[in-house]
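Chain A, query sequence.
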Amino acid sequence: MQPAVLQAIDTWELSWNQMQASAVAAVKSAFPFLADQPRYVGCDDIRMQYEQSGRGEGRVCLDDEGRVSIEFQAVPNTVITRAVDELQLPYLDHAAGTLHGAPPGTYVYNCESTNAEFEFVLGTGGHGQVNVSFARVPDATGVLDALMRAFSERHPDG
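Chain A, predicted structure.
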């Protein structure tokens, strides 16, 4: 390759690595329970996980396209409803307005402009799931921040 092309690729790679580090910092600042997980062979995703008694468990992945996926289980329904209602998503399938007081079920928002999917499952046992697929970093960080604030309201001492 020409030296100018090699330099351009090096510049792009440096910028990309900085962008990924910034994305991870944003996600972790919104949801400090996340801990780094090692990458494994054949997967370029940056993975983070959490497990907190009474707060659920799950993982967050930043893929090689700069999109975020969230897969949380055993999250208290009250935390999910408070966070989702704060987010004020424009439309949730199967919801008549806010999730506060909504029955157990699966509530989904598909963002047409970004192709991200936001799925919130209110479980019958008082605990549910938060699943976000292919979200932009600001959108995923907003979900994580809303969850963290809802956890803080539920457990004010940490």
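The mean pLDDT is 90. The beta strands are 35-37, 46-52, 56-62, 68-76, 105-110, 117-122, 127-135.
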